[in-house]
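Researcher: Going back to the complex we discussed earlier. I've cleaned up the inputs and rechecked each line, so this should be the final set. Can you rerun the prediction on the complete assembly and write out the structure?
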Amino acid sequence: MTVISYTLEKCQKCMKCLHSCLTGAISLQDARVKIDSEKCTNCATCIEACVYQGLQAKGSTLADLENYQYKIALVSTAVVGECCTVDQVEELMMAIKKLGFDEVINLSGYDGAMYEEMIRYVGVNHQQTTLITSFCPVVNKLIEVKYPILLSNIVPMDNISEVAARSIRKREDMPKNTGIFLLCECVSKLTLAKYPYGNKYSEIDHAMVIADLFPQISRNLSTERLRSPVSDKGLYNVTANLYTKGFKDKNVVVADGLDKVVKALELAEFDRLKDCDLLFLSGCINGCIGGNLLWGNPFSSFNNVRKLAKKACETTVDISNNDLYGVVIASSFNEKRSLQNRLANFIKINEYVEKLPGFDCGACGFHSCRAMAEEILANRATLADCRVLRSNDKNESE
Amino acid sequence: MMKYSYVINKDDYVNAGKVSSQIKKILKELNVRPDILRRMAIACYEAEINMIIHSFGGEITLVIDNKAEFIFKDIGPGIKDITLAMKPGYSTANERARELGFGAGMGLVNIKKVSDEFNIESSTKGTILTLRFDLL
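Model: Rerun complete. Updated structure for the full complex:
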């Protein structure tokens, strides 16, 4: 599933998005950007690469609140990390409540519970293999698409916001028509909710972009406060530089930012991280506090979190360990072709790859010569679509 | 049938693992089942590093047909005592290699453990390590 939408009128066909994509999900066909939703990890690198605002990701809006009688806002812990005192957090929560919510819950208590359980889990399971954990949907999808070898290393815990929504939904005093809204710090978490991107198994009704709400939140800010306890362990769970704090005698390696994540995954595939008990991965720099939809930046947010963590409380949400686990990402390996078939196909693709220049320039609209070769084999392109080959031919005939 | 060959140079720590990375990429493009791919990647990496540390250099050949066959062929100096070399923890890696984190002595043992077929022949003229993997 991709949450990234494309506006044709704004697109200048500069190919920057195509070159930026980690998984080769973007192509330019018929003068339009196409995003392969099977490959897209929603990392938003393409959104950042586009200088014409031709790519964006939109969540639900405040208008969606009207469909529910009772409205609950779940505020990602990373959003809390924009504040450096508990007072500021409570003022922020009140400002969010004034957007029209009946209840506002910051997820740090749930993050804290998850963090405690992770310490316990690693203590019990550490000897078998390098465990991998990420609450980052981008990283999980990246592993699924490019590193399926490592799927079995992932700790099968669920996403925190989903855990929270599930447990809140089960509350006895819960009014019937309750809407649960997640206020996200990054593009990829928009995929978690039922709306607007259709994750039908979710207990989260809507996901919203926190940056979109910021102008209104900013106007609502006052000295009025809404009590909202902040858990220190919850903050560690979303901050790469603080993550190792609670793991006393365990070897935990943290990789934040997609470059580091890719490096770590490549090494893990060769089993080169075997002395590491847990590998904590986050697509954003410095963890979720570096989310691309926050108003701050990963570096100043880290300073804020450090200050806030000193004043935060040690208690976490009381939730049973079983409720923290979720669906294991099953291996998407689904190969119906026989090995001979695959080999034959591979050899044919290689024949075209040999003929192509190998610059991966993208001028044909595909991200690499190999991708182009696959298209040629599928009869969706021809060698004549390669601009480099064409210009070579022209030069020779002159 | 598909065949790939790569040259490995003695003591080339700078490029250690590059051939394994290229082979891993090919196997992924072939869509080899992840659990098999995992074993192949580990074996190939360990064997490549062995060649860099211990041999005078050589060649890695990968042949894929009904099975995948890796041939690691070097030009010496050979393994003196293969039985000893197959013992967990035994290592002849020099200090430089150990400083870099190589040579914990699990190489050959690990390789044998993850391979479907394992064969090693060695003389002073060189060592030939042949590994086979079922791909189905």
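Model: Worth noting: The longest helix of chain A spans residues 108-125.
Researcher: Good, that matches what I expected from the previous run.
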